[in-house]
Specification:
Blueprint: H1 2-19, E1 32-33, E2 41-43, E3 47-49, E4 52-63, E5 67-76, E6 82-84, E7 89-92, E8 98-99, E9 103-105, E10 110-114, E11 118-119, E12 127-133, E13 136-139, H2 140-147
Antiparallel strand pairs: 1-10, 2-4, 3-4, 4-5, 5-10, 5-11, 6-9, 7-8, 7-12, 12-13
Length: about 150
Amino acid sequence: MRRMAKRFALLAAVSVSVLLPASPASAASGAWAPVSTNANWHCGNYYWHKLSRNVNFKVCLVSNGHATQAVMVVQNKASVSVRINGESQITTNFGGDQGCQEHVLEAGQTRGCYGPTVEGVTTGAGADGWLRVNYVGERWSEAMARQT
């Protein structure tokens, strides 16, 4: 009887996860929020921003098979805080563009700027990020080209 109850509970959990798929990532569009990655996250490498080798950023696409969301992830390895300016943005080829709010990134913090979730995009998605740190801007693709 106990074994049957465990099987039923497992079957119910799997059914719920299939019927209610999670959204790609959970944060408001344009907001800087903590980052917690899983197998749905597909990210480029971190590259340092031209202002400081202690400020790294990368662009990720998060997809659950039904929708896709772009996220620009920034980490501050410096011992001081930096200002991420309001002109920072994510650009995509699938309608997921997003401006990112101004934010102070504390020493040691990692945060992501989340673009909108776009339904129906599962393949062929691409994104880039424009990051302004203390009023100095650089594209992620430019940082990548400079460091590879």
